[in-house]
Amino acid sequence: MDRRTARLQKTFTSVLHGQVNIAPHLGPLFLEAMYTQQDPVACAGQLVASSSGIPALQTAIRYDLSSKFLNTHATAVLEFLQTPDLKDINNGRFLTDIIIKIVDPPMFWMAFRGAFMKGELEESAAASFGWLLLQLCSLPIDQATPYRQDAEMSSMLASLCSSSSQKIVTLGTKITEILTVVATPVTMTGPSGGASPGGRHDNDFADFRQISILPTSEELLSTDPPFLRPSSVLEDPGTESNRVAIHLDNQFRLLREDMLYEMREELDVALGRKKGHHKGVKIDGLSVKSIDLGPPGKRSKWGLVCVCKENLPQLKGLEEKERRKYLDEKKNFFKHQSLVCLLAGKEVLAFPTINRDETRLAKNPPEIILQFENTEGTRFALRKLKRENDIKLIQIDTAVFAYEPVLKGLQQANSLPLSSELLLYKKGDVLEEIPIANQATNVINALRKDPHTNLKPLLGTSSDIRLDASQAQSLLSGLTQKVSLIQGPPGVLDKFLTSIF
Fold first, then answer.
1. Which helix (H) or strand (E) segment is 248 a member of?
2. Is the pTM of this model over 0.70?
């Protein structure tokens, strides 16, 4: 280890351990010590794990806001954070937390943005600015809004998209796509041009991100057909500018309607409107007792404590210890976080979830804690519970837990991977090539030079591997393109792919 490397490492370690306070003269040294680390993941982990790490990074990156600093140390830090492995940690949240700390308070961000607008950034710094803006626009809506609605956004995008660097242009294109996706127009009509989303009931909105995952009472009673588009809408040339937004919107509505169909079917069976067997528990005569906030010192999300009119059939005739033992052994009985339907007579009030408190369930009569999600739905349910006497609870067996994370993911999505290849591709478009490993590079170069070359020495196989022209072209497409479709009867190529993968 040379003298400078040793000094950098000593500075980095001393700051992280709280032995040295970060100061203006140490700022650039600390940043250099960070972005020259050989293992970015380990380095970022040390920063986050140390109580001094992230505050030191926040302070060091805003000590000097000159163009020279932004083009050197600041750019190097951002390039360090672009390491692909960092993006993979905790579904990107690990990297997002670090980025938010860098731009908040906003002194560094405002200086960096200003330097970009004035044209003071070199190409590498401009690329890092584009990358940072892309990350900020990709944040959840409440955090991303100030950046997406920046007064200078159109100017910034124009500069990015007109750059001579293809990398910077690509960043500008991705940001444009995000802004298009999140600004779903309310006038996106159906194929007839007349039907449009919104207005059918209290949970029907033009912006699908405002739709509550679980249905409301008014929604279940509505006889209007849901707003769904056929696939032909995505093939219409007129939808190209907002096709990604339309696709996300429609996928959400289609999947949610699939979930609602199962819920309606189950409720119809449970309420006797259709023949069939309902597997869940059904309880009549509930009454509201109090609000539960969890035990002292370990507070949880609030829940409504409801008392059963009589003991549950499964617990009848059992002493309290026996009831507790039954509940301990039968974890799927009133399973924690399982969905239930709360009704007044036959009117659906809400779809709360169970907070399984075995001590309360073991009482005679049992007490059940219900937790609510939707604010308006909660208000409606509470008003009804105050006035109505015939309160019922039905356990829902529909696998809402399987639908919910996907539906929430669609609502939070602000872009669509491979959209250029899958939704926007037109015949003649040049497909972007992907980064390739060394072994694949050797195979690609050999096949491009001679499609019939023997691949045996490159792959170290025991037998010769020679492809015909179509097989070689298919393999090249599979190794170099983000998306490729290889069709044909079994043959040499299939055996080759099997030997590799």
1. helix 243-270
2. no
How far apart are the C-alpha atoms of 52 and 54, rounded to whole Å? 6
- Under 8 Å between Cβ of 449 and 456: no
Contact criterion met (CB below 8 Å) for 392 and 284: yes
CATH class name, domain 3-182: mainly alpha
Peptide bond connecting 352 to the previous residue in cis, omega within 30 degrees of 0: no
Helix extents (H) in 338-432: 358-361, 375-387, 400-412, 419-422
Burial 293-324 (b: 16+ CB within 10 A, else e): eeeeeeeeeebbbbbbeeebeebeebeeeebb
Give the pair of three-digit tokens for residue 309. Answer: 């009119």
Beta bridge partner(s), residue 433: 481
Contact present, 222 and 382 (Cβ < 8 Å)? no
Report d(CA 355, CA 300) in Å as an integer: 10
CB contact burial 389-428 (16+ within 10 A = b; e otherwise): eebbbbbbbbebeebeeebeebbebbbbeebbeebbeeee
Low-confidence ranges of the chain (pLDDT < 70): 1, 183-195, 435-439, 488-501
What is the DSSP-derived secondary structure letter of residue 239? G
Angstrom distance (rounded) from CA 361 to CA 359: 6
Contact 64, 26 (CB under 8 A): no
Q: Domain extents for the chain?
A: 3-182, 195-276+397-415, 282-394, 438-500
Q: pLDDT tens across 68-79, in order?
A: 999 999 999 999
Tokens 């806001």 found at: 65
